């Protein structure tokens, strides 16, 4: 967890004390009133609301109203967030059936994530790159099943080294057993 002023060279971030960055990619703006009104600043760049999937253009203040099940939780473009397969307990093997969610990967960019085990040693690393509509997904150390969700991508033309399924969030890429590279052609 870090203060916005430490992460961004933006004068508007100097006085922000009611929101923070969680790691390099997640902007969290907790709500501190019973009305559910959040007024928060989004730094320059493109951001994606983790919960709704809406794209937010930064460099501005945003005011929104949320119910008790929501809050501003934004993901910086060109980010990968690892999401575990269970939500019923905090102590489980996070690398087993992990889904790596890729947010707003820009053309010509590459992004990566590494998931460590209880011994702090890397259990699985994923690198995703994009050239036009071609996404290249590479993995290292994968001993357990894993997937990649291309958030906001709904049209897939082909997958080499795996297959895909549709979800509300985007295309879920499931690699063939033992595959270290998967190539996806998307729109």
Give a short summary of the structure.
The protein has one helix at 4-7, and strands at residues 2-3, 20-22, 26-28, 37-42, 46-49, 55-57, 60-65, 73-76, 79-83, 98-103, 110-116, 122-131, 134-140, 146-151, 156-160, 162-166, 170-175, 181-186. It has 187 residues and is mainly beta. The longest helix has 4 residues, at 4-7.
Q: How far from one another are the termini?
A: 35 Å
CATH superfamily of the largest domain: Golgi alpha-mannosidase II
Total domain modules = 2
CA radius of gyration: 17 Å
- Characterize the main sheet: 6 strands, antiparallel
Quickly name the level 1 CATH class of the largest domain. Answer: Mainly Beta
Order of helices and strands: EHEEEEEEEEEEEEEEEEE
Helix content: under 10%
Unreliable residue stretches: none
Which of globular, elongated, flat, extended, rod-shaped describes the shape?
A: globular
Report the portion of residues in β strands: over 45%
Strand order of the largest sheet: 1-2-3-8-5-6
How many runs of DSSP E, i.e. beta strands? 18
CATH architecture of the largest domain: Sandwich
What's the pLDDT, averaged over the residues?
93
How many separate helices? 1
The structure class reads mainly beta
According to CATH, what is the topology of the largest domain? Immunoglobulin-like
């Amino acid at each position: 967890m870090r203060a916005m002023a430490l992460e961004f060279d933006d004068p508007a971030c100097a006085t922000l004390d009611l929101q923070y960055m969680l790691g390099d990619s997640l902007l969290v703006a907790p709500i501190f009133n019973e009305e559910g009104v959040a007024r928060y600043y989004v730094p320059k760049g493109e951001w994606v609301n983790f919960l709704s999937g809406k794209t937010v253009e930064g460099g501005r203040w945003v005011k929104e109203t949320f119910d008790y099940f929501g809050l501003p939780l934004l993901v910086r473009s060109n980010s990968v967030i690892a999401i575990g397969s269970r939500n019923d307990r905090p102590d489980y093997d996070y690398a087993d059936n992990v889904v790596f969610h890729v947010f707003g990967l820009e053309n010509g960019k590459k992004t990566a994530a590494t998931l460590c085990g209880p011994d702090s040693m890397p259990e699985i690393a994923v690198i995703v790159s994009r050239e036009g509509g071609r996404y290249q997904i590479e993995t290292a150390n994968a001993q357990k099943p894993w997937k990649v969700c291309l958030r906001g991508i709904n049209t897939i033309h082909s997958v080499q080294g795996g297959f895909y399924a549709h979800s509300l969030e985007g295309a879920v890429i499931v690699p063939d057993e033992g595959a270290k590279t998967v190539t996806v052609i998307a729109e």
